[in-house]
Design goal:
57% helix; globular; binds zinc ion; alpha/beta; four-stranded mixed β-sheet
């Protein structure tokens, strides 16, 4: 009898639909320990920028499982997506690093703005990795470049001051590229800093040449023309790859907006 029940239950379970895709992006703060990081943590908890990002992705996509965005002291000046733990790490030490970098070349107010905007751009970059990992999105070519593109496409669709996030990140790569011009990591999974600078600037120009006309003084004309052609292709690629996971398909050019 017991054996029969087990078999029946197994048969029944095989008839049931697959477990619903009801995962969520969840933001957690394990708790900062230093006074400086505790101040930043309180600001993030009050203003909820990462929660707003998570809410937007939850409204937009079906996720097969929960994904944690861990905003924390990580011991590393870095942010990353960890696929086996289904986590994105946003590091206070990385914000420290950005503040120091921008303060060396800009007044305090601009440095704070650029550091935070760069952090938010990097958060989108990591969410690009998370979408690829969690939704099993295929990539050809370098994933790091693809998720830089994803972050650019997103901030362009959001529009307004969100575009500053891409420009601040481009500034970060320009500063890094000008500073570290020897022992370049040709082997790394990331493109070189100056390549990322030109890539972000070029793609933002490709999205809206009139708005980013200043790029014509920095990036060769031939390259900018290519970005104008590439922008709609990259937009189509991301929207088509993500389409099976949308809760609701929006008109072309609006599906990455958060
Ligand atoms: Zn990355």
């Amino acid at each position: 009898m017991l054996k029969f029940c087990k078999s029946a239950l197994l048969a029944l379970s095989l008839c049931l639909p697959a477990v619903a895709n009801d995962g969520r992006i969840l933001v957690v703060y394990p708790g900062a320990t230093t006074p400086e990081h505790q101040i930043v943590e309180k600001i993030f908890k009050d203003l909820r920028p990462f929660e707003a990002m998570a809410d937007s992705y939850n409204a937009k996509f079906f996720f097969p499982r929960d994904v944690l965005v861990v905003v924390a002291e990580t011991g590393q000046a870095n942010c990353w997506y960890q696929p086996d733990k289904h986590r994105v790490y946003i590091s206070y030490e990385f914000l420290d690093f950005l503040l120091k970098l921008f303060r060396a070349v800009e007044p305090e107010k601009e440095a704070r703005g650029d550091a935070l905007n760069t952090l938010f751009f990097v958060a989108l970059h990591e969410m690009g990795h998370a979408l690829i990992g969690e939704l099993d999105i295929p990539t050809t070519g370098r994933e790091e470049d693809a998720v830089d593109d994803f972050a650019c496409l997103t901030v362009h669709q959001v529009g307004g001051s969100a575009r500053e996030q891409a420009l601040a990140a481009a500034r970060w790569f320009a500063i890094m590229g000008a500073r570290d011009n020897k022992d370049l990591p040709y082997w790394d999974e990331h493109s070189l800093d100056l390549q990322r600078f030109y890539g972000i600037l070029g793609l933002m120009y490709g999205a809206d040449p009139n708005r980013f006309m200043f790029a014509e003084k920095i990036v060769p004309e031939r390259t900018l023309k290519r970005h104008v052609q590439d922008y709609p292709k990259k937009l189509d690629s991301w929207e088509r790859l993500l389409a099976p996971h949308f809760r609701k398909k929006l008109p072309r050019g609006q599906n990455l907006k958060i």
